[in-house]
Structure formats: C-alpha cells, structure tokens
C-alpha cells in the first residue's frame, strides 16, 4: 500500500532543472546544471527532475551527467507518453542510484482536441502503453495527466486507474495553467484518492503553476487532502508565472507543524544558498519582497518594528533568518589564503577540480584577491563558472583594450585564443560605447549570429570592488535564443566573455 494518506512524510520533488529551466532566461549550461543538482542534493530534496532528455542532445547529456553524479537523490527524467521519449529518458537516467521516469499526457478537452487531436480512448491506450513501457525499464514511474485542473473528473479517474494498473507508483496532478483555487484543488485530490479504485497502490503528488499567485496555497491544499509529494522549484521558477516555490511550501510545513504535522527531508539552512546559486547561474533575481528568500524577507525598516524586534524578535519574526541559512556576507578567504584553503572551500561548495585545475584557478583567485578585499562564496561560484566556461569553449578571451571619451568614438581591440591550438586572432573596431565596439570585434571573428535582445549587469554582493555578473541573450533570425553569463570585477571583461560564450554556442549548433 503506497498511498499513505496516513503517513505524515511529504516527498519534495524538485523540478527547477526541468520546468524551471524551460522558462525564458533560466537556461543553464551542463556544468551549471550539475552544480545546481549537487546543491539540491545537499538541500535534501527527495527527487530531482533533471530535464527532458528527448528535447535535445544537450538536455540528454545534462540529465545523464546529473544521473551519474548524484549519490543519494532520485534522478527523474520527463518523457511524453511515447516509446521513443521514454527510451531516450531511460538511456539518460539509467546510471542513477535511483532512476525515475516521469511520463505525461494531456487529459483536458483543450489538450486532447487541439494539441493532441486524440479521443479519450486513444488517450487511455497511450497512457497504458507509456506507463507499461516505462515500468518495463525503470522501477519508479510517475504519471501526470497534464492540465488535470481543467480535465473532466470522471475521465481523470479512468486515466489514473489505467496508469496505476500499468505500474505507475506516483500520480502527479498538474494544475498546468494555474487556474484552480486552493479549496477546489484540495477537493480534486480528495476526489481522486476516493474514487480511483486502485489509489492505494500509488502516492498522489501536486504540480501547481502560479498564474494566479496560488501555487503554494494549492500545493498545501493538496497535501491536506492526501497528496504526499509536492513538485516545486527553487525561487518558484517555471513556465510563465512559475511553479510552487520549494522554499515556501517547505517553510509552511516547518513553521506551522501545529497546523500541518508533516515531516520532510529538507535541510532548511541550505535554502538561501540554493536560492542564491540559482540566481547566480541564471541571472534571474527574485523580487525584494519575495517570501523566505527575498532581500527584504527579514529586513525591519520602520521604527515601531525595530523597537519590537529589539525587545523580542518574535514580535515581528515567525522564523529566524538563520533557519533558512540567511547570514550577512561572510568573508571566507583573502589575499593571503593559500591553494589548500581555496581547494577546501571549492570542495565544501561541491566543485570537483583536479590539482592542475586548482593551480590555474588559484592564479585567477590571486588576481581577484588583489582587486577585492573579501572573497565570499559568491566570488568562488563566479570563479568556478569562469573556469567551466573556459573548459567548454574553443576560443577564449586573451586580452583586450578599450578607449572612450565624451568627444570620440569608443574603440576596442580584442584578442581571442584557441584553447587547443593556441592560435590567436585580433580585431579592432569602433562602436557605440566600449562594449558595443568589443562585440563588433567578436562579430568579426564568428560572423554576426543574431540580435542582442537582453543585456543586464548585476553586482553580486555590494561594494565598488565587487564582482558583477553580465547576463545576455542573443536571438537568431530563426528565433533560437541563446543566453550566457560571465562574472568579473571588470564589467567590460565580463561583457566580452559572456558574448564570446553565447556566440560560440550558437556557432556550434549552426554547424
Ligand atoms: O505543468 C505541467 O503540466 C507539467 C507536466 C509536464 C507535469 O509541467
Ligand atoms: Zn509544469
């Protein structure tokens, strides 16, 4: 009996790397995805949905690497209800300690009639075949009736019964378009558990989108009604308005045990570090007043609040910042720190570098430490990001000079070097500002790959000597969007490195 409506353990299924990564501006490189997956494992999530392997060879590779890298967490891959997707997904996850296949098919009239153009009978048949095939390959299988929130309840019962008979262990109920209200979603879960004849053979799960700002409330209503798994994402990343935010559902369970009385496996002190890592990897900031992880979530500005806080924190604080790992920026290394200390801190942050790699990064660390007094975890993430980007790219920035003035055109000279052959190329261009001139040099090397549709610079922490992350997106004529990022204390250098990265990725895929 799996549907432990009576068990009080809530499984946390993180889909940041799948539903989250699908959202515009959230794409990550393979090493970045592996890095985030390791942090999610440290956070204690039960399942990581690592991607959609059939979507592209890059997605496949990333899921495969994550499956091979994680030690304890279940690694799941998403597949449409078709044999080829399911086989590809299995090929990607089969090396995981605990592999899981998540297959789905639309069940609402809109999805069946307009997207899939299938009858109810055909959907039932496809569900049976997909789940049976997935189960023949993999011990753990999740099934989702997509757009369940707008599906006919009686038909949902039929589809779910077929899925469970075919071997699904978990039935995930997606409110794909974030349409349902908490009471309604709770009632839907309760109805399904009550009316699906074999519901005791699977656990029920929630997957709620946030189009009306109800994703967290709907997920919690789902568990109150008997669901025992929540699909969610860090910072609420996901399609359109996103998914239920992991930090919100988990902290509701943790802060209100008197109300929920559920257990989970999340190490809440890792929440803030995970949120920051996602921001750093994607350049997508969370709003200042975002619950749990926003900049203001634990800030007390008004005199009355400050007075109350000084008298007793609990007057205005229902959880401590420490409980979710918020701490003031910590200086962890400085210019006198040695290679061993650097290596130890990278190991603590779950980066695996060889001795030779550490020797190379150490040189960059020394330059950084000369320019910047306090080296923090964020700085180390940026160093690692740069190192991984350099390893990935055929050409990297060797040197550059830029000049500009109020009465002259900006000019840039950029030299790039081939990582394998050592060959160098130089271009000199003028432009509308130093970055534009530099980008024209890079266009000269590779040809113009597309239009720059987004360019953003963010300081990682605070202070004039801090590192900035440059985030950009290029859109090609055919509509392909490539994003890239790079960090440095020098904004021009970070801008050139990010552009060089995006252009080379586009070039690679156009060949
Ligand atoms: O929102 C959705 O319906 C999904 C499914 C693939 C689970 O993301
Ligand atoms: Zn979704």
Short note summarizing the structure:
The chain is α/β, with parallel strands linked by helices and about 500 residues long.
Give a verbal description of the structure.
The protein is an alpha/beta fold and 511 residues long. The chain has 4 domains: 11-282, TIM Barrel, CATH 3.20.20; 298-328, no CATH class; 339-390, no CATH class; 393-510, 2-Layer Sandwich (Double Stranded RNA Binding Domain). The protein is 43% helix and 20% strand. It is built from 18 helices and 14 strands. The protein has helices at residues 16-20, 30-43, 57-69, 83-93, 109-116, 120-137, 153-166, 182-195, 215-224, 246-255, 257-260, 271-282, 303-311, 339-348, 355-371, 377-392, 434-446, 491-510; strands at residues 11-14, 47-51, 74-80, 98-106, 140-146, 170-175, 203-208, 229-232, 395-405, 408-418, 424-431, 451-459, 468-475, 481-488. The strands form 3 sheets. An 8-stranded parallel beta barrel has the order 1-2-3-4-5-6-7-8, surrounded by 9 helices. The chain has a 3-stranded antiparallel sheet with strand order 9-10-11, with helices on one face. Helix 15 crosses helix 16. It is globular. The mean pLDDT is 91. Bound molecules: 3-methyl-2-oxobutanoic acid (KIV) and zinc ion. The site of 3-methyl-2-oxobutanoic acid (KIV) has 9 residues, from strand 5 and strand 6.
């Amino acid at each position: 009996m799996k549907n432990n409506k009576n068990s009080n353990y809530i499984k946390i299924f993180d889909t940041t790397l799948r539903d989250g990564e699908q959202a515009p501006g959230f794409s990550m490189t393979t090493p970045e995805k592996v890095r985030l997956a390791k942090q999610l494992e440290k956070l204690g999530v039960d399942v990581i949905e690592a991607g959609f392997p059939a979507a592209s060879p890059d997605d496949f590779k990333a899921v495969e690497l994550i499956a091979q890298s994680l030690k304890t967490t279940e690694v799941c891959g998403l597949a449409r209800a078709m044999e080829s997707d399911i086989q590809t997904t299995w090929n990607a996850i089969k090396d995981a300690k605990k592999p899981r296949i998540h297959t789905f098919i639309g069940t609402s009239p809109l999805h069946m009639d307009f997207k899939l153009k299938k009858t109810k009978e055909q959907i039932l048949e496809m569900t049976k075949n997909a789940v049976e095939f997935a189960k023949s390959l993999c011990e753990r299988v999740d099934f989702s009736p997509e757009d369940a929130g707008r599906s006919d309840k009686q038909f949902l019962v039929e589809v779910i019964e077929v899925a469970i008979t075919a071997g699904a262990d978990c039935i995930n109920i997606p409110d794909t378009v974030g349409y349902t209200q908490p009471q309604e979603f709770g009632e839907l879960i309760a109805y399904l558990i009550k009316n699906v004849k074999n519901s005791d053979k699977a656990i029920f799960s929630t997957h709620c989108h946030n189009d009306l700002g109800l994703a967290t409330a709907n997920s919690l209503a789902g568990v109150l009604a008997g669901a025992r798994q929540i699909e969610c994402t860090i910072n609420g990343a996901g399609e359109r308005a996103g998914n239920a935010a992991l930090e919100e559902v988990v902290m509701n369970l943790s802060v209100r045990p008197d109300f929920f009385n559920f257990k989970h496996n999340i190490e809440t002190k890792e929440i803030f570090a995970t949120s920051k890592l996602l921001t750093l990897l994607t350049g997508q900031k969370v709003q200042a007043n975002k619950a749990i992880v926003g900049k203001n979530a634990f800030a007390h500005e008004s005199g009355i609040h400050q007075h109350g806080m000084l008298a007793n924190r609990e007057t205005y604080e229902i959880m401590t910042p420490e409980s979710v790992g918020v701490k003031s920026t910590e200086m962890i290394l400085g210019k006198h720190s040695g290679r061993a200390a650097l290596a130890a801190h990278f190991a603590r942050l779950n980066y695996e570098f060889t001795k030779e790699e550490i020797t190379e990064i150490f040189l960059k660390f020394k330059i950084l430490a000369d320019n910047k007094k306090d080296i923090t975890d964020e700085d180390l993430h940026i160093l690692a990001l740069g190192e991984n980007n350099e390893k990935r790219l055929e050409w990297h920035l060797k040197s550059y000079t830029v000049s500009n003035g109020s009465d002259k055109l900006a000019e840039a000279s950029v030299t790039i070097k081939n990582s394998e052959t050592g060959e160098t190329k130089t271009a000199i261009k003028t432009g509308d500002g130093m970055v534009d001139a530099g980008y024209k040099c890079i266009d000269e090397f590779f040809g113009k790959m597309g239009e720059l549709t987004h360019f953003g610079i963010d300081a990682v922490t605070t202070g004039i000597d801090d590192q900035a992350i440059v985030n950009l997106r290029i859109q090609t004529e055919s509509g392909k969007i490539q994003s890239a990022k790079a960090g440095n204390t020098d904004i021009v250098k970070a801008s050139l490195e990010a552009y060089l990265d995006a252009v080379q990725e586009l070039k690679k895929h156009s060949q």
